[in-house]
């Protein structure tokens, strides 16, 4: 973005990243606490093993597996995105501070940051 600035509220972005990661951990915990018993109960085939139960099981297991896998992936993804946001904010702030120091060390140059990072 030549000639344009990127404005970053580092504290707000960190809080957002931390919230995303915490939400991911909570979704993962809920998947484990609620989803594991659902999977275990389904494996017992409480609907029976006759023809009707077998037909139900065939449909149920596919949907249950897909739902439980998606639930797990959602938790991991939210946690990962939150962690990525935190790393990105840290890298952005560190890069900006390093660049400001480097510009301040140039002969006959003076860099005055227009806003401090928090």
What features would you describe in this structure?
By secondary structure, the protein is an all-alpha fold. It has two helices and no strands. Helix 1 (10-43) packs antiparallel against helix 2 (51-104). The protein is rod-shaped. The two termini are 23 Å apart. The relative contact order is 0.16. The mean pLDDT is 89.
Write the layout of secondary structure elements.
Blueprint (H helix, E strand, L loop, with lengths): L9 H34 L7 H54 L14
Helix pairs in contact: 1-2
- Largest β sheet strand count, sense and barrel closure: none
* Through-space gap between termini: 23 Å
Low-confidence stretches: none
User: Total strand count, please?
Assistant: 0
> Helix and strand succession?
HH
User: What structural class should be given to the helix and strand makeup?
Assistant: mainly alpha
Return Rg in Å.
Answer: 25 Å
Structure at a glance:
With 118 residues, the chain is mostly helical.
Salient structural properties:
2 helices; mainly alpha; 118 residues
């Amino acid at each position: 973005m030549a000639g344009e600035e990127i404005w970053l509220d580092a504290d707000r972005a960190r809080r957002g990243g931390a919230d995303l990661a915490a939400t991911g951990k909570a979704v993962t915990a809920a998947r484990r606490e609620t989803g594991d018993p659902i999977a275990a109960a389904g494996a017992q085939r409480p609907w029976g093993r006759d023809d009707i139960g077998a037909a139900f099981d065939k449909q149920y297991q596919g949907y249950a597996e897909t739902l439980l896998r998606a639930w797990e992936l959602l938790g991991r993804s939210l946690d990962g995105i939150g962690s990525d946001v935190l790393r990105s904010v840290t890298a952005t702030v560190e890069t900006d501070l390093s660049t400001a120091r480097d510009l301040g060390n140039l002969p006959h140059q003076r860099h005055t940051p227009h806003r401090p990072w928090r």
